[in-house]
Design brief:
alpha/beta, Rossmann fold, eight-stranded mixed β-sheet, four-stranded antiparallel β-sheet, 11 helices, about 20% strand, globular
Length: about 325
């Protein structure tokens, strides 16, 4: 069987705040101060097959963006391994690892913050392909024009700075910059969240067109389950650094299995349920500085048992193609 394009095995990412000199002295004198560790991603297993669009969903602070940065190579995992076409990235030589990293590009949530305001679009889009030897400096302007046309922008705009564009146009510039190095895998981190609804629809349609024309694979991160339903083949739900459910999009939206996934879907507004009282998930998401024992969701779960408080459920295949990390299903 062909290995997945991208595979994560037990990937964790922790951020440690070390004690400064004053803190070390205070601890030596008996103060209870200690280093703080943020458990941003906790033992995630994930597979994305070539040509697939996987939606990664969860509340703010659940670790989605950190996981995306690990996949993109912006963060090194604290534990676990990242595999590209079945090969561990850490086993590849420097040239092969760089080539694999170049195949994975990220589109960020805020297009204005992710574009250098001092550079013109021609430099923003054209710098990376020249540096990596994909095009010569003499070919740069033609290559930039081709990428701008691909995302629906006029190539004559290449001499402008980011502040001279609208939000939707800046989003397209960010997409053009990612496409300029000929990637095969795009990570879209809330790529349409900052846009007006009408512009969101245009950019989402652009993503679908690019998928067909370039054969792209997506990891699409979003809070908006409506957008995920429209765009994605499979849905992965994260909660406080862990994957709690993974399922084909149709099956997930018909009947989610994990209590957290059920609660998320229940919060999506629907016309047929407009008179129904809105019921938010009770409680606050716990701090990743001190995550709960057992199942991370148990403090907010209406079905929690003593086993949930003591034992962390494993992500298991409970139906063909459907995975859930809940003691209720296993």
């Amino acid at each position: 069987m062909t290995p997945p394009m991208l595979e994560l095995r037990g990937v964790s990412k922790r951020f440690v705040k070390r004690l400064d000199l004053a803190g070390r002295i205070a601890r030596a004198l008996g103060s209870p101060v200690r280093e703080e560790t943020v458990h941003a991603v906790d033992g995630v297993d994930l597979q994305v097959r070539e040509g697939e669009v996987v939606g990664l969903v969860g509340e703010s602070g659940c670790g989605k963006s950190t996981l995306a940065r690990v996949v993109a190579g912006l963060h090194a995992p604290s534990a676990g391994e990242v595999r590209w076409h079945g090969q561990r990235l850490q086993d590849l030589d420097a040239a092969a690892r760089q080539a694999a990293r170049l195949q994975v590009q990220m589109i960020f949530q805020d297009p204005f913050a992710s574009l250098n305001p001092r550079l013109r679009v021609a430099e923003l889009v054209g710098e990376a392909p020249v540096v990596h030897g994909l095009v010569s400096r003499a070919q740069r302007d033609d290559w930039v024009g081709e990428q701008l046309r691909r995302v629906g922008l006029d190539p004559t705009l290449a001499d402008r700075f980011p502040h001279q564009f609208s939000g939707g146009q800046r989003a397209r510039v960010g997409i053009a910059r990612a496409l300029a190095v000929k990637p095969r895998f795009l990570i879209c981190d809330e790529a349409v969240a900052a846009l007006d609804v009408s512009i969101q629809a245009q950019v989402l349609n652009l993503f679908m067109e690019l998928r067909e024309s370039l054969g792209l694979t997506y990891l699409f991160i979003s809070h908006d389950l409506g957008v995920v339903r429209h765009l994605c083949d499979r849905v992965v739900i994260m909660y406080l650094g862990r994957v709690v459910e993974s399922a084909p999009a149709t099956a997930f939206f018909d009947q989610p299995l994990h209590p957290y996934a059920q609660a998320l879907l229940a919060e999506v507004p629907r016309l047929e349920a407009r008179k129904k009282d809105f019921l938010a998930i009770t409680g606050e998401i716990p701090s990743p500085l001190d995550p709960p024992s057992g199942c991370h969701f148990h403090p907010r779960c209406p079905h929690a048992t003593e086993r949930c408080r003591q034992e962390a459920p494993q992500l298991k295949e409970v139906e063909p193609g459907r995975w859930s990390a809940c003691h209720l299903q296993g």
